Amino acid sequence: MVWEFWTTQLDEEELVENNYEEYSSSRATGMNGNGPSKLVDPLEDPLPGVGTYEDFNTIDWVREKSKDRDRHREITNKSRQSKVALLLSVIDAFSGWLLMLLVGLMSGALAGGIDIAAHWLTDLKEGVCLDGFWFNHEHCCWTYNETTFEERDQCPQWQSWAELIAGTSKGGAFAPYACGSGIPEIKTILSGFIIRGYLGKWTLIIKTITLVLAVSSGLSLGKEGPLVHVACCCANILCHRFTKYRKNEAKRREVLSAAAAVGVSVAFGAPIGGVLFSLEEVSYYFPLKTLWRSFFAALVAAFTLRSINPFGNSRLVLFYVEFHAPWHLLELGPFILLGIFGGVWGALFIRANIAWCRRRKTTRLGHYPVTEVLVVTAITALIAFPNSYTRMSGAELISELFNDCSLLDSSQLCGYQQPTNISETGAGNSLADRPAAKGLLTALWQLALALIFKMVVTVITFGMKVPSGLFIPSMAVGAIAGRLLGVGMEQLAYYNHDWLIFKGWCSPGADCITPGLYAMVGAAACLGGVTRMTVSLVVIMFELTGGLEYIVPLMAATMTSKWVADAFGREGIYEAHIRLNGYPFLEAKEEFDHSSLAVDVMRPRRSDPALAMLTQEGMTVGEVEALVESTHYSGFPVVVSQESQRLVGFVLRRDLLISIDNARKRQEGVVSASHVVFTEHAPPQAEDGPAPPLRLRGILDLSPFTVTDHTPMDITVDIFRKLGLRQCLVTHNGRLLGIITKKDILKHMAQIANRDPDSILFN
Amino acid sequence: MVWEFWTTQLDEEELVENNYEEYSSSRATGMNGNGPSKLVDPLEDPLPGVGTYEDFNTIDWVREKSKDRDRHREITNKSRQSKVALLLSVIDAFSGWLLMLLVGLMSGALAGGIDIAAHWLTDLKEGVCLDGFWFNHEHCCWTYNETTFEERDQCPQWQSWAELIAGTSKGGAFAPYACGSGIPEIKTILSGFIIRGYLGKWTLIIKTITLVLAVSSGLSLGKEGPLVHVACCCANILCHRFTKYRKNEAKRREVLSAAAAVGVSVAFGAPIGGVLFSLEEVSYYFPLKTLWRSFFAALVAAFTLRSINPFGNSRLVLFYVEFHAPWHLLELGPFILLGIFGGVWGALFIRANIAWCRRRKTTRLGHYPVTEVLVVTAITALIAFPNSYTRMSGAELISELFNDCSLLDSSQLCGYQQPTNISETGAGNSLADRPAAKGLLTALWQLALALIFKMVVTVITFGMKVPSGLFIPSMAVGAIAGRLLGVGMEQLAYYNHDWLIFKGWCSPGADCITPGLYAMVGAAACLGGVTRMTVSLVVIMFELTGGLEYIVPLMAATMTSKWVADAFGREGIYEAHIRLNGYPFLEAKEEFDHSSLAVDVMRPRRSDPALAMLTQEGMTVGEVEALVESTHYSGFPVVVSQESQRLVGFVLRRDLLISIDNARKRQEGVVSASHVVFTEHAPPQAEDGPAPPLRLRGILDLSPFTVTDHTPMDITVDIFRKLGLRQCLVTHNGRLLGIITKKDILKHMAQIANRDPDSILFN
After folding, report:
1. How many CB pairs under 8 A join A and B?
2. What is the ipTM of this complex?
3. Which ranges does the record mark as transmembrane (chains A, B) (predicted)?
């Protein structure tokens, strides 16, 4: 009976806006006063605002999911009654798919637009198309029919500029939430945190524009992190069109998880990799239903992007690769070397970047974000311009490094000595290993300089107040290192066919070493070292190459890189940034490896004052208000009596305040001396008392989670993670002892790791 | 303090064999008697058998995982002390990877062996190679140099037999656990159930041999389900070589999850699809670490299989496909039709198969499994032989149906009219649509008959006492239906170029319809309808074709098929078989959609006798024994006193019996009148009592899971699923009310679904 009332309450709570602002306005318009007996009436409108969250707070996954199940049950029950309700229930069931379709379409279209705009702007740095300024370099020259393919760079319509002004002046648009990669924040939001406005339409608009500017500015940054953010913004905005998702924070997060997959899908043209990325790296709660829907959305987005065809080659990405030669088992040696390099670089990068970001946060540097961006852009542009490998965009660089050199290739990287006769190259194999010529040696020098430059500048750039992805710069570093090693191996093999290690598989004139593959393995290793992605990284790379053949080298390098980087520190770059920002994020990957008990973590500690709790009857409105005012806790346990301390339920501060406030305004006779009653039936003494009691059982959570004081913390942490709890009460032999919140756990973990527990800012 | 003792207890429990048989033997060899005071000594050897499970029981995931964390903590602590311990800890950390490598190698090798053996035996049905009986048909004819490629079927060395004896006589080898698909049982085991011997070496050996016989016998069954079982057996056997996995049921299940991925990986040459299959369909607890390791193992297995090269074409599977023509958006219509067909067939198949299997279980039919197999094999062989499409093996049939017809193709399915001149085919497009000739029409008739035959015979075959997979027969049914529809569409388009729907994309002489693609879509739809796989199915198919191009048709068909099938009934074939067998499996995919509360499900019910509970002090050994003897419960809550009913902990029946038994034998002065004490310090009255008290705090679980009586069952079910609980205590205002076990929940769910609650057999 009691439960049924509560259930209905929750059902109807969904009909009000799950938003505090709207609550305030609806409260201002005035509601009918309700007698105390009516408050228990299930048909009555529930109080708006009850069951919602404040900004920078953590949601209660269990309650949200329970709310959604109630809603679903309601619809199912109704659908048995009439044809219209049945139709509505079918529409409701398919609305999730429709939403996914829209998210995929919108994100794919936006990604296409961003690609085209960034491409155009990048070329605008170099010159302008005289036929029409909106053409980019390639399109401009395509329209000029007389140019042959080889000479298209010199088409007369394309007017080259020497100025860099275009690049430097473009990085300067800001919005509070539009800067940075966005992935740390999205991880935190997906874990249940609320940051209002972070996924709103203004963020979307500003992020999209600044992303175009930032990518085309020539800074050492990529677009995949921001694309994930853009896709999540799209999803969040579209969620507002569907009641089911607007009103339920847990359901909305399912959609956002799918949107994260969409973001990576459009960034790399890798739908499966995107889904696995969302599963492995970003998401917190990822049920199988979401897996399937994410996959659908990722595919829709990829196909939308492909039909927009931003690169004019019907490929989804700039660096689609096709290799022709197989690799040899002995090459695993250099691949593992690349893995070690990637791991070391990843670990160093995280340390350096976090140190730099901390400096930015704590020193005066942080006060001048615009100046910082302009200075970094200017320096980047000045240093990058002379070197053709740093001048080109990250994606173009990677594309060139991944490429296999054929005989006809005119790129500097393919500046090998041309074979004097066909027989020398071994039956006309146009991909055979050849000795390096002057062009290639110059390219190698430039690449080495570019490597050092990229390594330094990425540390400074990531975390600046511009939208900045990390995938492309990390991959660029790895690709340069890999290509250098690859060319080195190739020359070694060419001049030393007779060495034992090359014997048998690398005869003269054969194409035994593919430097492009080394570049790719290096890129994967560095990206793995920085982000600690595993499966998703390999699958993304697999989707780029499209062959199972090269998975083994990628896997070897990624595994090595992760192990090496983990030896330096367990955190990936995103986790490090979450920690730097003090977000309440309970990492699912890291095992809690300490033997503390719940009693060691719970509040109140031994020296603290006793736990603030309410009794189920016997307290007056004034007493309750005084208790709430005197503390800052977001919820209070309700016990049978102060003596027995047997737990009845848990009530949230926000719900309590709203209900009392509402009752005082609309319910006659509710004064400070009125009794607050959490029991099912009002106690007899209240009826002859001075004022009618205020019944608040409706807002009481009768099923609070409890653990005993002897529960090991590893189990407690597991419960928090898996169920998505906000708080958990601690009992000893049936008596209430204390409370553990997510923040307490995070503080405890920080303490164990010898970090400052006060760095955890939110609850 | 208290916890530390318990922790150490658990640590050392791992040093004993986690196996009841070994416990019995060690007990028989005799142990030193221990004084009562020594029982609290943390250095003392723990009792063997405490903390282990009996056969056909469910494990406690929380306890197992906690045990593993304790073990890990121990190793980490030790590793700080000495170099040797550090090395041991590194070895321990990498032992998981080593195990995965071994599982991959062993499973890949076994799968290769099975493929080769089955191929040879299948051909043996048709004839024998005169040059050497161990060659199969293809290899035999390869060695005969004079045959041209087209005539290789007629090479003189290959002696054809007309007899079917070979086929019929081979299906008759049995072992209790080696029959069936194995996937339902593996799902149950992975969810935490214990079936001893199901993954043992004898099962492996017999399953491997019978699988070869069954596949080659011509029955309508596939090998992927049994291959999953074989891989899990390999993993389980290899686990026994590693202490970490031998002694921890939860850790071992992580390895088994990876092994399930390996099984699919070798069955289809689809490592990513295999991992997703394990994640989506089979696994219960699948942490990210397992994802990464599964992927590794799946890759190793795929490469092992490829280096064995069982099909002689350096492909992993028989039906690798490459299509050349793109598909048109309008073709989505027929693809969705195939999805509907797949869904309807899937739902009907499940109903018919379950009805048949129930009949087998309940009637006299079940008493003659061998006769049944022989009769079905004989009938299958007799009916199948005249039709060439039913005579060939399922994989060969699928391979042929998936194939695209080129001009040179000599297969009957490609019996199109040859174009009279080149210009007619449109610039020599060798794949252009052509009118059907007599050969194709015959083939269509045969295919239609084969479709009906396969549909009927698969219902009877799956569930018989032979190793039988379901993927290949389901796919065969779908592929036939798809090919029929595809050829129909092709002819329609050829003769009606001018129809509105074909205009614009299907000009004469173009290759607009690819019947092979229809076959593939149909196969995916039927497999989806039967198993309700989604992402993993699409990814497996993607890995078979290797192009993102065809994912959209596959996805459309799979989604439609799942929706249609779900409309008939939510259960896939594996869940239906699990339910048929009464295994205690809590489906993670199905939402609990009923508004009952914990108090409605818990025992004791209102009419039942009171809950059997122990008090923490004041009970004698005799009383405890009497209570345990009088009930069949597997555990008892311990309370402060019968009056207060405040919960202290939970003790398992098995642990209690073993401890009392042990104490009676070895501890002096323990008699029936001795007090049993669960408190930390013995109560004062016990010290002047007749006998020293028996302290059992060591076996008491001080952190039992509790929910309140008002907790909605959907939340309770969620807790059970996510934490992997065995039981959960129910409290009201701090007092113990009752207990909910996994079996109670399953019975409750059966009741809601109007099924017999007594069909749930195990706990």
Report:
1. 173
2. 0.83
3. 84-106, 255-279, 291-312, 332-354, 366-385, 443-463, 470-489, 517-542
